[in-house]
Amino acid sequence: MPYAKIIGSGAYLPTRVVSNDELAADLATRNIETSDTWIVERTGIRQRHIADPGVTTSQLATKAAQAALENAGVAAADLDLIIVATSTPDFVFPSTACLVQANLGAKGGAAFDVQAVCSGFVYALATADAFIQAGRAKTALVIGAEVFSSILDWNDRSTCVLFGDGAGAVVLQASEEPGILAAQLNADGSQMKILCAAGNVAHGKVVGDPFLRMDGQAVFKLAVTSLTKSALDVCEQAGVRFEDIDWLVPHQANVRIINFLGRRLNIADDKVVITVDSHANTSAASVPLAYDAARRDGRIKTGDTVLMQGVGGGFTWGSVLVKI
Ligand code: ACO
């Protein structure tokens, strides 16, 4: 059975950077109080990239995909599978993956979206791995992309300071050499209320509440517990000793969650990739953005064992263990 090997990655962030001070000044115009100090102390976030009005998830995803294809040395025509993980699709349908396929000038392969919120990239990666192992795809593009700024309530300081926009992508190819070693995905739908955007459009009208709502402390507790167990389970499944992991690339929600997780797993700080300070939480885009940053600056190298982890609304969580 072939492995699914990551042969390239790419990223795209909107050019507009909004610092905590700038965001605090904007909120102050609506009598909403926040500060750089509060945001940094509670979350580690210093800035976020925000897409201009009208910019869509498929546009960000296409740019990240082009960078990943170039890095992999793969032509769009060779892709037989495109999966986009997103909770902010351009349309109800067609899927964002179909829009990306058209933008890339690819045709004929399978293309679909995966919706698992901040766990979306890990879910999509595990799905592409299963396709490749089963012989149903040879060259896959997996993207995490979001315009999360479009579902934020900019009058709710407890959520609007936490998120940003962006896209990250990887190219996977069937290979005899080890690539994805193990994956495990989980969900607990009974926890849907602690993190949701429970609105939709029906009969031409918005029904429910279209904005993201969150019980931050409940999310914090569940994220730490579920990711710890998932990390240990995926290593056991792969027969990899935890101490042999070179890099942890966790979902970038909050530096306190990441530090807490690192301590529970006994992983040294310099083995954990952190981008939440400059990207904020980009939901499904956060793991591929962090992976791409660490690969491009030379931290993650060929031969490294990397543990990627996602956690988010649903409630969903999961891990993918990869030999690069
Ligand atoms: N600026 C200033 N004050 C604020 C802000 C803000 N932006 N937001 C909330 N506060 C206030 C609250 O109103 C509250 O005031 P009060 O004591 O007068 O009532 C006070 O700060 C404390 O609020 P808490 O919600 O208790 O703050 P907490 O210490 O829990 O920190 C946070 C909030 C950062 C969201 C935290 O709960 C957390 O890290 N949760 C993890 C969830 C997370 O990171 N989610 C990201 C998305 S989920 C995901 O990606 C998995």
TrEMBL record:
**Quaternary organization:** Homodimer.
Q: What is known of its domains?
A: The last Arg residue of the ACP-binding site is essential for the weak association between ACP/AcpP and FabH.
| Gene of this entry | fabH
- What keywords tag this UniProt record? Acyltransferase, Cytoplasm, Fatty acid biosynthesis, Fatty acid metabolism, Lipid biosynthesis, Lipid metabolism, Multifunctional enzyme, Transferase
Q: Which Pfam families match?
A: ACP_syn_III, ACP_syn_III_C
Name of this protein: Beta-ketoacyl-[acyl-carrier-protein] synthase III
The record's subcellular locations are: Cytoplasm
**SUPFAM superfamilies on file:** Thiolase-like
Q: Which organism is it from?
A: Pollutimonas harenae
Q: In which pathway does it act?
A: Lipid metabolism; fatty acid biosynthesis
The entry's function note states: Catalyzes the condensation reaction of fatty acid synthesis by the addition to an acyl acceptor of two carbons from malonyl-ACP. Catalyzes the first condensation reaction which initiates fatty acid synthesis and may therefore play a role in governing the total rate of fatty acid production. Possesses both acetoacetyl-ACP synthase and acetyl transacylase activities. Its substrate specificity determines the biosynthesis of branched-chain and/or straight-chain of fatty acids.
* Single annotated GO MF: 3-oxoacyl-[acyl-carrier-protein] synthase activity
Q: Where is this region: ACP-binding?
A: 252-256
**What are the positions of the active site?**
C118, H251, N281
Q: Does the keyword Glycoprotein apply?
A: no
GO biological process, alphabetically ordered: fatty acid biosynthetic process; secondary metabolite biosynthetic process
Main location per the UniProt record:
cytoplasm
Is the Lipid biosynthesis keyword given for this protein? Answer: yes
* Enzyme class, first EC level, given as a word: transferase
Top-level taxon of origin: Bacteria
Instruction: Enumerate the spans annotated as Beta-ketoacyl-[acyl-carrier-protein] synthase III N-terminal domain.
Output: 112-189
Instruction: Report the family membership.
Output: Belongs to the thiolase-like superfamily. FabH family.
